[in-house]
Specification:
single chain, mainly alpha, Helix Hairpins, 2 helices, rod-shaped
Length: about 140
């Protein structure tokens, strides 16, 4: 069995690992996108809520409504702060997954190059062997005549 054929299972393993990590990276990317979308929704909701409150306050508002508004806005601000933390953690996880995937891709590519070189060398050796055999057959024919 040739070196290239012996390395094929290893190359398949490296390729599978790279594909698995790429799939994991895609899942983490979706997680980041979802977290960012939720954050933007919360920020948009806060902006809408503030605008509505200003309109109501312009017409006059009671102390209870003001206190309720401030309490709700405080909870909303805290939810935004927590969602920002979720986004940061998801981004950190994505960055770590990206590094793992890039390293696996480099290893798979490097091994692929080595296997290709071996296959090229093996092909050349086979071609030389065939040429030598062909030359020997032709020489024998010439010698027989």
């Amino acid at each position: 069995m040739t070196r290239a054929k012996r390395m094929k299972p290893v190359q398949n393993l490296f390729d599978d690992t790279e594909r698995r990590l790429a799939s994991g990276l895609a899942a983490v990317e979706r997680k980041v996108t979802d977290a960012e979308t939720k954050l933007h929704e919360l920020e948009r909701y806060r902006g809408d809520y503030e605008k509505q409150f200003k309109q109501r306050a312009g017409r006059g508002i009671g102390a209870t409504d003001l206190r309720d508004y401030q309490a709700f806005l405080g909870r909303l601000v805290e939810a935004i702060r927590q969602q920002q933390a979720v986004v940061r953690r998801a981004q950190s996880e994505r960055d770590a997954e990206r590094l793992k995937w890039q390293e696996a891709a480099k290893r798979a590519k490097a091994l692929g190059h080595v296997v290709e070189q071996w296959q090229t060398e093996e092909r050349r050796a086979s071609d030389r062997r065939e040429q030598r055999e062909s030359d020997e057959r032709a020489q024998r024919r010439v010698n027989k005549t």
